[in-house]
Amino acid sequence: METMNIVVLIKQVPDTWSERKLTDTDHTLDRDAADAVIDEINERAVEEALLLKEAHGGKVTVVSMGPDRATDAIRKALSMGADEAVHISDAALHGSDTIQTAKVLASAIRTIEGVDLVVAGNEATDGRAGAIPAMLAELLGLPQLTHARRVEVEGTEVRVERETEDGITHLAAELPAVVSVGEKINEPRYPSFKGIMAAKKKPVTTLGLGDLGIDPSEVGLAAAFTSVVESAPKPPRGAGERVEDQGDGGVRIVEYLAAQKLV
Amino acid sequence: MPDYRLDEEHEQLRATVAEFARDVVAPVIAGYYEREEFPYDIVRGMGEMGLFGLPFPEEYEGMGGDYFALCLALEELARVDSSVAITLEAGVSLGAMPIYRFGTEDQRLRWLPDLCSGRRLAAFGLTESDGGSDAQATRTRASLEGGEWVVNGSKVFITNSGTDITSLVTVTAVTGRSEAGNEISAVVVPSGTPGFTVAGHYSKVGWNASNTCELAFADCRVPEANLLGERGRGYAQFLRILDEGRIAIAALGVGLAQGCVDESLRYARERTAFGKNIGSYQAIQFKIADMEARAHTARLAYYDAAARMSRGESFKKQASIAKLVSSNAAMDNAREATQIFGGYGFMNETPVGRFYRDAKILEIGEGTSEVQRMLISREMGLR
């Protein structure tokens, strides 16, 4: 492999530090209620792409689907060191589900020539479906290496340590491929002021549904396979159960945890 | 009309440093403070972000930004902790800036890249045991013998002078006498030079996770080429450095004052007394309103001074005003925040407890509040 042409998917999400809620009208995300930030797992995806680029040379393109203000999240990825960006923004996308989103992202990635690797986060902190990377690989006809805690590229092969509840699996695939990364993959860098200033001059291509040849009726809330019928705030935390230790405290705690299926 | 909004780049820098302060500094700083330990890991992270290179050109590994960018970074750090903020302030405005402003190209290329990247720190040795505000009282001497400066004397309260990564101290010394008084020059003394001893660090009231040491020079010899700037211009040079530094310290004070607001606002919503959040009582509301007003007005004062400086206008009076009002705001807000927290505010592990201890030095360092009033009135023509 000469150099790598890497695509990173990023998503702007409500800051987990602020209060997150759904709108009363259509139960979609209330984007005005919380500060919007690049999802933390995406910062790790960007970092991994930058590390691969630093090791092998090449280019990192950020791809994001979201409303106009997602440019802030895109700019952060560019400030960290990504080279260019594709921003898919169209009012008709409001309320799209994961399948529709994966289709749109796949179309956008097809507009980029010679992609070697697509890097995504495992799961966003807002929707938490965790399905996009696999769906995307399916749509693009590429191997999927998900839940990576370590990524290595040698020649035309990508090798991944996949970590799930079942343990660690070693995966390998020929490039091009789709990789999704988990929390343990790396510690993302903070953008430097030089990076912040350089980001302003980096190219951002904005695409609408028309540019991707997608009919607006195929996407959005009305055409979604899933819909949210009702939503309610999380009930306040209960008082909990008090265990007096009479020599059997440890056992009783384990019994309690076992009853909750936590151990 | 004056416009105090931040442009996109400065806003993004501010947000990035705020995130770093929240995620990297806040969780661990109380431990460093308690142990009076220098936070090398945090300082390395600040270096990797380029904070130590903010106002310097890229040819010296700087970030190509401006002094205002440094001030914004200082404000956001000090909102969480003043020890790391003063480490940055002293590293840039007292450590690297004299080399950049007064150094030869050789000196800049030799020392600045390591300082801009935060791999090394530099210190500025001005204050002596018998002379703080009265810099003319300098007793440390440097005499030229056989192509070397021989330095003798001592300095006190020198920030960043004794860390494992300190590379040099710029020392002001008497290099001769003229009719006008002492001829003062600045000489760069690299760490580890024979005859240069760093005494153990002080036990301080505040800024406990920063490094402050006493320095002694006994027949300490450095090359003649280590003279920084013109011989005899040492006094004028450090006045310029202190004028700028006041804007930076003002930003740091605004950060502390705002940090007090942040903490108090959170606590006022959380803490209940007599069945209601304490934030629903006017006694607390008015305190917090006053605190916010002080932080806001002090911020405008340092923005104005920094804007004048970057436009190349005279900023001496505005820098002194900013330093005066921001250190007042920091002291007042720290006192009120501690009051709002009650007994918890008196505990060292709470941020407001640290803010209270860290605020006082702001009325003393980089020119006391009395010196600021003196400078302001002089600028108004009163002599």
Automatic annotation (TrEMBL), chain A:
InterPro entries: ETF_a/b_N, ETF_b, ETF_beta_N, Rossmann-like_a/b/a_fold. Its cofactor is FAD. Keywords: Electron transport, Transport. Pfam families: ETF (PF01012). The keyword Mitochondrion does not apply. It comes from the Bacteria. CDD domains: ETF_beta (cd01714). The keyword Transport applies. Residues 26-216 form the Electron transfer flavoprotein alpha/beta-subunit N-terminal domain. The electron transfer flavoprotein serves as a specific electron acceptor for other dehydrogenases. It transfers the electrons to the main respiratory chain via ETF-ubiquinone oxidoreductase (ETF dehydrogenase). Belongs to the ETF beta-subunit/FixA family. Heterodimer of an alpha and a beta subunit. This is Electron transfer flavoprotein subunit beta. It comes from Actinoalloteichus caeruleus DSM 43889.
TrEMBL record, chain B:
Residues 123-220 form the Acyl-CoA oxidase/dehydrogenase middle domain. The keyword Oxidoreductase applies. Residues 8-118 form the Acyl-CoA dehydrogenase/oxidase N-terminal domain. Its cofactor is FAD. Keywords: FAD, Flavoprotein, Oxidoreductase. SUPFAM superfamilies: Acyl-CoA dehydrogenase C-terminal domain-like (SSF47203), Acyl-CoA dehydrogenase NM domain-like (SSF56645). It comes from the Bacteria. InterPro entries: Acyl-CoA_DH_CS, Acyl-CoA_Oxase/DH_mid-dom, Acyl-CoA_Oxase/DH_mid-dom_sf, AcylCo_DH-like_C, AcylCo_DH/oxidase_C, AcylCoA_DH/ox_N, AcylCoA_DH/ox_N_sf, AcylCoA_DH/oxidase_NM_dom_sf. Residues 232-380 form the Acyl-CoA dehydrogenase/oxidase C-terminal domain. The keyword Flavoprotein applies. Belongs to the acyl-CoA dehydrogenase family. This is Acyl-CoA dehydrogenase. It comes from Actinoalloteichus caeruleus DSM 43889. The lineage of its organism: Bacteria, Bacillati, Actinomycetota, Actinomycetes, Pseudonocardiales.
